[in-house]
Amino acid sequence: MALKITQTRGRVGLRPNQRANLEALGLKRPHQSVIREDSKSVRGMINKVRHLVAVEEVAGE
C-alpha cells in the first residue's frame, strides 16, 4: 500500500519541526504531490503536518 501526499498550504509561518517534516516527506511547494510507502514513520510525519497536507491511499507499485 502506498500513500499519495499532497501539500495543500504554504510554509510561511511554520515552526522549524513542521518545515523539516515537509522536507523529509519530499514536499517543497503547495499543490506538489509525492508517493511514499505506508509505514509508521511516514504516518508520524504526516500526523505532525496533517493541517498542511491531503493524503490518499493508492495501489502499491
Automatic annotation (TrEMBL):
GO terms for cellular component: ribosome. Keywords: Ribonucleoprotein, Ribosomal protein. InterPro entries: Ribo_uL30_ferredoxin-like_sf, Ribosomal_uL30_bac-type, Ribosomal_uL30_ferredoxin-like. Residues 3-53 form the Large ribosomal subunit protein uL30-like ferredoxin-like fold domain. Pfam families: Ribosomal_L30. The keyword Magnesium does not apply. Part of the 50S ribosomal subunit. Belongs to the universal ribosomal protein uL30 family. This is Large ribosomal subunit protein uL30. It comes from Corynebacterium atypicum.
